[in-house]
């Protein structure tokens, strides 16, 4: 496991904060980057001791690349990512492996200046945000946990949030104007608001493994291997099954798994929160905290960052008095729709 980052040292006490972002994943980082670009003072906390180093979500879609551009980060994207311009489809006929077509990663219905998917693991994506936030004086405070909040009579900062420093076990009370719950699928912010979710679950077991593999397969950078099966019981079995599956799919090409970064098993499910904010438009949930998709087609991270961008430009304008607070209500209308 990675060592705790030095970011813990930026933990500061008690002063009122316009926006508190809970969770430094794709949604939290995007929220922080957008708000700080608008000059909105904020704090961002995460209970993990250090950022993700590598792995997890890897495909940044064209619309997300456009957002990076609007935040002034296109060069960083180009520096770390590999551009995937097309996907190859393969099939087996009479025992022979054949490539049926190349399909461009271009959305003909939504023209874009970025007709490709940027392939870059989540460690790099988060590093870009850490550097960007740091350039504007914002550091992620780690390991700090959001515990809960109460409302107060204070006109300007009506939420009293409790944060626990997981090293010192000290609990800090912070008056804030807004809380953005970007704290993932098991969101404590969502639970504090007592928001229920509708879940559509299948009985299929799926597995995703992130591996370093040596292969002579022609389209190694243009394909994803997916494994499926009810016999998925533990990491070792999963890797065995996925390796056998990849070998038989690719034969006569070869593939050898050199290192396993992570293995994840899950049931395919779609979950959507009944509501994305409290009645006063003070506390919002974003990203996996408010909706989850099947990981197929790599929508997770992109949709999460798009949630954050959608909410935070609106929040920035309302905090600066340039838009009516009712603008914030369009966040739920627009983002709930993306899960359907
Ligand atoms: C192996 C794997 C592969 C994936 N591949 C893809 C892909 O190819 N493409 C894609 O788009 N998506 C992919 N995803 C999905 C994607 O990673 C998630 O959808 C995305 O990370 C969700 O972002 P988020 O910011 O909403 O939540 P998270 O990334 O879950 O971040 C939540 C953060 O909140 C913190 N937190 C939680 N509770 C608290 C608390 N009480 N106090 C303080 N901090 C808290 C957590 O420590 C965490 O850092 C993949 C996921 C995995 C695991």
TrEMBL record:
Keywords: FAD, Flavoprotein, Membrane, Oxidoreductase, Transmembrane, Transmembrane helix. Residues 17-216, 254-336 form the FAD-binding domain. One of its GO terms (molecular function) is oxidoreductase activity, acting on paired donors, with incorporation or reduction of molecular oxygen, NAD(P)H as one donor, and incorporation of one atom of oxygen. The keyword Transmembrane applies. The chain crosses the membrane at residues 20-40. It comes from the Eukaryota. Its cofactor is FAD. Pfam families: FAD_binding_3. This is FAD-binding domain-containing protein. The lineage of its organism: Eukaryota, Fungi, Dikarya, Ascomycota, Pezizomycotina.
